[in-house]
Amino acid sequence: MSTKGIVRGIIANLVTVEADGPVSQNEICYLETAGTKLMAEVIKVTGKNAYVQVFESTRGLKINDKVNFDGHMLEVTLGPGILSKNYDGLQNDLDKMDGVFLQRGDYTYPLDNDKLWDFKPIAKVGDSVQAATWLGEVDENGQPHKIMVPFVMNGSFTVKTLVDAGQYSIHDTIAELEDEQGKLHKVTMVQKWPVKKPIKGYKEKPRPFKLLETGVRTIDTINPIVEGGTGFIPGPFGTGKTVLQHAISKQAEADIVIIAACGERANEVVEIFTEFPELDDPHTGRKLMERTTIIANTSNMPVASREASVYTAMTIAEYYRSQGLRVLLMADSTSRWAQALREMSNRLEELPGQDAFPMDLSAVIANFYARAGYVYLNNGAVGSITFIGTVSPAGGNLKEPVTESTKKAARCFYALQQSRADSKRYPAVNPIDSYSKYLEYPEFEAYIQDRIGDNWIPMINEVKTILQRGLEVSEQINILGDDGVPVDYHVTFMKSEMIDFVILQQDAFDAIDMMTPIVRQEYMLNLVMRIVHTDFKFDSFTEVSVYFKRLINKMRQMNYSEFETDKFKDLEKELFDLVAERAVL
Prior knowledge:
alpha+beta, nine-stranded mixed β-sheet, 14 helices, 25 strands, about 25% strand, globular
């Protein structure tokens, strides 16, 4: 018999419920008011009282209203048909709603009940299987969507029956599995899993090592991220987070893209809905939306829904990773998620931490980031979740608690700088403050040595040193004046500027420059460093700027030209002729 209760207290979306039976942490319940059922989640249990956060507006809810507990945690529905869908944080299909707004108490089913899928069996009758074993597959927008043994099934099972290839709906029984006690379990294409609990249908989770190509030079070359890696992008308003997100989503070597808009302003979420369906996928030639799922919660939705959205997105990502796919998960903005945690913590009157955030904020963020990763599945295949979150620190303050806590959890840090954005140096990633800890991994170093060469990582470290030296020289020139420092200082500064303009800056709206393969990145970096290592002779500081601007202009023209074409080679020859004018032999 399910547990029931009655409402005893209401503080905004936090409701105190007196239960007549056992209640567990994170259990789902429904509050009945005026014929409407409001979904809520238990976040604290004290004696016979359960504190629940309601995913809807609590307007009209009264003391003594009835509550029914479901006996399970907040779950997502997993199966074919998730791709190209727009969901809210509770996985309601936003395309099925009536009108502009979701009506309170209305919950839509996330999948298509009637669609028939072309099923192809992978397993055979008599096979021994376990949770996450692939039984068959269907085609979902060009992706091989694996139908798996449900993750909730523990132990070993034997396949007793398996349907032949053909068309089936998601609720048709496609297999019967016999457990060790001889009991039969029917399996469909659909399964459910609680969002707060990581899916562990894999054999091993090693440290990630394989470079994830994004086509963005300031990431791939200077501070690379890996398949199954974690990173975050903090930056104030107007520094280009959205464009950078679009570039990474569109160009990264990923099979599936999941966008979690958790608590952004409504106009920013609308931008995602309107722009993503228009983006062309450079890998398939089709629309990017065909392999994308969007989880959206705006800032005017209840904080509980905002908090749930990132967990819903991560669970869907884990589901596709278990199918041997490479998943890219982008969350914008994790600051709004942290603010939702702060609001609920304050309502529970918990001891506040820095800036009133929960005391365990660092642990919550670290546990969430830890769910990403590169895994070896039980059948030997590999899958990955690469997670990149954006942080919106108030006033661009990178010392605030969410940024500092995320720094401890994420391996890559891409700091967007207001001054770079103001001077139109896009992407506005600060190359000196940003970092990638994967450059320190022996596994990544071995991978890069095999893929590119032994001198790649030492060259990257040298580039960062030159950029740092260029910044120091720039400050000295600003203080002492152009003629107050030696000519060599101006040469050092302009060489760092050449790296900035040719390597770090990129045009997201140019068909060629928007995406740079790693082969071309290697070629151009070697070319730039060859010029950096060249000694030049100048009589005055005025000659330095004019000459290096000519070099930079020539190399930027190369960036806008197809790689290794006649035009590209002609520009390169003109560049070498220009270098020879001032080079000291």
